[in-house]
Specification:
Distance between the termini: 65 Å
CATH architecture of the largest domain: 2-Layer Sandwich
Shape: elongated
CATH class of the largest domain: Alpha Beta
Strand order of the largest sheet: 3-4-5-6
Helix content: 25-40%
Number of domains: 2
CATH superfamily of the largest domain: Integrase, DNA-binding domain
Oligomer: single chain
CATH topology of the largest domain: Double Stranded RNA Binding Domain
Structural class: alpha+beta
Strand content: 15-25%
Radius of gyration: 25 Å
Length: 193
């Protein structure tokens, strides 16, 4: 059976995970990430979109101001008098900063705002409104990614949480497990120095 003519459910699911084949694909109209990718934007920019909000397309008609082409033969003008522009509007996730975490509202599902310069450090916001700092890391020699919750955003200052994340990543690169340091309180003590 050829997958083009009669795809199975598994083949359809795989196809939906892949890149949309054209701009008319439903994912390019309904998903902000794929809408930007179909326009030619990079993955780095498109991954910052809020995927649970649909992209908005606005149409704007622009006309030439009067007197722009005065004195020119109308047969020689190659620009149309009226142009319709379609503009794609998507919501971009803000960079993590102290102000961002104070203003970040809870949503129906848990989400994370990542720090732009340090992609492994972020603020996790739960539907209940609880906010906590997290860091993602891999221990040297191990492929499995780990997530460590550093603490509640209300009890740890932003700069201290950033230092804790850097220390945890350095320990993981050295082959040590930073989760043990966090449980014993050494991670917080080293970050406050």
């Amino acid at each position: 059976m050829k997958p083009r003519n009669n795809p199975t459910d598994k083949q359809l699911a795989k196809r939906m995970r892949g890149t949309p084949t054209s701009r008319t694909d439903a994912r390019a109209r309904n998903d902000a990430y794929w809408a930007l990718r179909a326009q030619g934007y990079s993955h780095g920019l498109a991954k910052r979109t809020l995927r649970d909000e649909q992209p908005r397309v606005t149409r704007e008609t622009i006309e030439h101001p009067k007197g722009v082409f005065e004195g020119i033969d109308p047969d020689e003008i190659l620009v149309p008098n009226r142009v319709t522009l379609n503009t794609l509007e998507v919501t971009i996730r803000p960079d993590l900063s102290e102000d961002t975490f104070k203003k970040a509202p809870p949503r129906d599902t848990e989400y994370t705002i990542w720090l732009d310069g340090m992609s492994s450090f972020g603020l996790r916001i739960r539907p209940s409104g609880a906010k906590s700092y997290i860091v993602m890391f891999r221990i040297r020699g191990n492929r499995k990614p780990y997530r460590l919750t550093l603490g509640k955003a209300t009890s740890i200052p932003f700069e201290t949480a950033q230092r804790m994340a850097r220390i945890a990543r350095m320990e993981a690169l050295a082959g040590n497990d930073p989760r043990g340091m966090h449980k014993s309180g050494d991670l917080l003590k080293r970050a406050k120095i």
